[in-house]
Design brief:
alpha+beta; seven-stranded mixed β-sheet; two-stranded antiparallel ribbon; 3 helices; 9 strands; 15% helix; globular
């Protein structure tokens, strides 16, 4: 997190990394998009600090559980009700962000106009794909 209170370790490499251009990610990151890295919740180890949670309805209409540092409010990961097995780690919370290589862009219909012109070379999805299998396969092939 930004204040350094929350520290965590991942027990494995991410399953997939992608860039999300939805308005929620733009607002949450205070930027034009957000980076997400999926990991199994059993591979997420909180080393220090305390996480707090709140829920919201995402643009997809699904409930999103948002975990953040109890002190500074930095977002750490997202989850979903009934999906305690997987976290979507927020890319900005990782120490080595340079290692993040997205396999796709999602919610590009909400992308900022200046960003849209730069979205070349990776698959783009107007919204959130129903099946992330293609994106996961692409990510695996990039490694």
């Amino acid at each position: 997190c930004q204040c350094g209170s929350v520290r965590y370790e991942l027990g494995t490499d991410p399953i997939v990394v992608y860039t999300c251009h939805c308005s929620d990610c733009q607002q949450q990151s205070s930027s034009a998009f957000g980076m997400s890295a999926w990991v199994a919740s059993t591979d997420f180890f909180l080393v220090s600090g305390k996480l707090r949670r709140w829920s919201m309805v995402a643009g997809s209409g699904r409930i999103k559980i948002c975990s953040f540092c109890a002190l500074c409010g930095s977002r750490i990961h997202h989850g979903a009700p009934g999906r305690d097995d997987m976290y979507s780690i927020k890319g900005g919370s990782l120490d080595d962000r340079a290692q993040l290589r997205p396999a796709a862009h999602i919610w590009v219909r909400s992308a900022q106009p200046w960003v849209r012109r730069m979205l070349v070379g990776l698959p783009c999805y107007e919204t959130e794909p129903e099946d992330f299998g293609e994106i996961i396969d692409r990510y695996r092939s990039m490694r």
